[in-house]
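Posting this for the archive.
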Amino acid sequence: MEKVMFIEIGMGIDLHGQNVTKAAVRAVQNAIHHNSMPGLRSVLPGNDLHQMKVNVRLAVPADKDKLDLEVVKAELPYGQVSFEVVDGGMLTSSGVVLAEKDDVNDLAYVVIASVEVGY
């Protein structure tokens, strides 16, 4: 990415089911769903949203091999998306195991996302 214009940070949690993809999707949603960048198009090459570059860094506490980046990518409506997955986030107790929520233990998965937007 030549020029970073915005960095948005979010956190996502899967309380039950131990699904790292669900937590990552929620982290990206949390990072981007409270923002509007109406002037961004005017600074992009050719005023084209497809020229926007989006780099997503995900701090994932466990099960990185189960992380489905295509599902996470679907949350980002524009741009050329790249990912960087690093160790981080948190595993913590949800305080309860709910079989009907597909829990295999009481762990809640917390993923942190940093979404860099630029060109």
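The CA atoms of residues 12 and 26 lie 4 Å apart. The chain has one domain: 4-118.
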